[in-house]
Each structure stands twice: as C-alpha cells, then as structure tokens.
Write a structure and sequence with these properties.
Layout: E1 3-7, H1 17-22, E2 26-30, H2 34-37, E3 43-45, H3 48-61, E4 66-67, H4 91-101, E5 106-110, H5 130-143, E6 148-150, H6 156-159, H7 169-172, H8 182-192, E7 204-209, E8 217-221, H9 222-230, E9 234-241, H10 245-260, H11 264-274, H12 284-291
Parallel strand pairs: 1-2, 1-5, 2-3, 3-4, 5-6
Antiparallel strand pairs: 7-8, 7-9
Length: 293
C-alpha cells in the first residue's frame, strides 16, 4: 500500500514528532517547515518566494527534497502541481489534493489543525481561516474521505458534518483551544499560558465597599481584595470559593503526561513559542518548570 505523510504547521504537530522522526516513506511539507524537517522531507511546496529560499537552503545543507511548485520567478517546477486549480489556494490543500491525484492509498496528515495556533506563525490564531474548512470539505466531496487519516484528533466527523465552517474559528480567534482533544488543549496551555485554559484555581472572597458605594458587596479574587483592603477601600466579609486545587492538579498531571513523551528539542520549540528567552541555554527540566508558570 502506497502512503504519504503530510505535515502542516499547526501546533498539534509537536505532539507527534517521534512518529515523524521514525517515518521512512514519502514526507511532504510546506513553506518554512524545511528549516525543521528538511533532512526528512521528500517534497516541499509553498509560496514561490519561500521555495526560492528553500532551494538555496537545500543546496547549502546538502539536502535532497524536491520542490513542488514554482520556485521564485521561474515558470518551471521540479515537481509540477497537477491537482485542480480550486485546490491551489493554500499549501495544505495543495498537498492533500495532490496526494489524491497521484493515487496514494493512505494519506496521513499531521499538524493540520484547520486554523488556530501555528508553529511558524504564533499569532495566526487571530486570522479567520474558515476557508480552510470549506476547502477540506470540497476535497472530500471530490475524492471522498476514506484515504485520509489524521494523526491525533480526527477532524473527519466535523468535516463530514453539517456544522458551520466557522465553528472552529469562533473559538481560536478568542484565544481558546478549538480542537476538542485533551492533549491539544494541554499543549495550547503550555504555549499560551494558563489564562486560556478555562478553569479558575483562585480563591474568591466577598467584600463590602467602605468608600465610593459604602455597603455595596461584590466578589473579587483574594489577592485583589487584599490590596483593596490594605488601602482601606473594602473589608473582606467571607469566602465565596476556595481555590480549585483539583483543577490545578489535573492540569499539572495532564502536562506531565503530554511532555513525558517529548524530546528536549520539542520542549525547546514549545518554550520558544511561549517566549522564553535563551531556551537553547536551558535544560529540559528547567524549561518544563518555566512552562508550568
């Protein structure tokens, strides 16, 4: 059975780096992924200017991947793209459609998150990418979905449903993890911090205002209430919610489970996405401690 592994740049790819590293067959990627996996790739596609840079990088580093599509201003291509024009509007769609056109019996896709957080463009989640969902649905309409297998979370039930194209988009543009998978949610938290996680572990207290609106009662996180009390603005009159230690413990256990199977190199990529300076100078253990903060 002929098979190909297609690599996208969604953050879920970081969950499957051992699998990618062990893959020995056809391996395609897009745009600047060649800086990470150039030694493993068999083909690269993407924007013409990026492919021109990739060709120089390939020569400098003695790599052998072929470039699929036009390089720079050249009209010719090492490997021509033959899929229908309707599927040539983004690199991911090109790879999936081209793999179908070339008759691969099994098409594994990894890092295709259909929008949201991106390894090479951390702020991509701010951009509306519902069109990616529409194009995937067009691919399934033309070729069927049987040959495609997503590594990790299976998006096929969503793509084959009648849910709106912008279902994912409405979450990731708010900074929320849109893939309903525990490992993805944990990875998202490691990269963007615990504020997007959706649980609250803070102790909350009720206060009574002494100034402005004397006698008015409301709730604040304890640390905020203490600062207001120190200034004589409120008095703390009770506890509304104790710290949710179970939620915090569950999150820590999930992080430990996900990161246990990651290499030091993968942890460093996550740390860099998180904005940790000099990640290359820290040990794996040190980086994991920083990522918990």
């Amino acid at each position: 059975m002929t098979s190909v592994l297609l690599l996208g740049n969604g953050i879920s790819r970081l969950l499957h780096e051992p699998f990618i590293d062990s893959w020995s067959g056809e391996l395609w990627g897009a745009n600047y992924i060649y800086t990470e996996w150039g030694g493993h790739l068999t083909r690269l596609t993407g924007h013409a200017n990026v492919l021109a840079e990739a060709a120089e990088y390939r020569a400098t580093h003695g790599l052998s991947f072929l470039i699929m599509g036009r390089i720079g201003n050249e009209e010719s291509a090492e490997v021509p793209i033959t899929c229908p024009g309707e599927f040539r509007k983004d690199s991911g769609t090109v790879m999936v459609a081209q793999a179908h056109e070339e008759g691969f019996e099994r098409i594994y896709v990894c890092g295709f998150d259909l929008g949201g957080a991106d390894i090479l463009s951390p702020d991509l989640y701010l951009q509306a990418k519902a069109q990616w969902v529409r194009r995937w649905r067009q691919i399934f309409k033309r070729y069927g979905s049987e040959r495609v297998e997503f590594l990790g979370h299976d998006h096929k039930p969503f793509l084959l449903s009648d849910k709106l194209d912008d279902t994912y988009q409405r979450r990731y543009r708010r900074g929320l993890p849109h893939v309903p998978d525990p490992d993805y949610i944990t990875l998202h938290r490691l990269i963007y911090g615990p504020t997007v996680w959706g649980y609250r572990s803070d102790r909350t207290v009720r206060v009574r205002w002494l100034v402005k609106r004397p006698g008015w009662e409301t709730d604040y996180k304890e640390e905020v209430a203490l600062k207001l009390a120190e200034k004589g603005k409120v008095e703390i009159i009770g506890t509304v919610r104790e710290a949710n230690t179970k939620a915090a413990d569950d999150a820590l256990n999930a992080e430990t489970k996900v990161t246990a199977r990651m290499s030091a190199a993968t942890i460093r990529k996550i740390a860099k996405l998180r904005g940790i300076e000099d990640a290359d100078d820290h040990t794996r253990a040190d980086l994991l401690e920083m990522l918990k903060g």
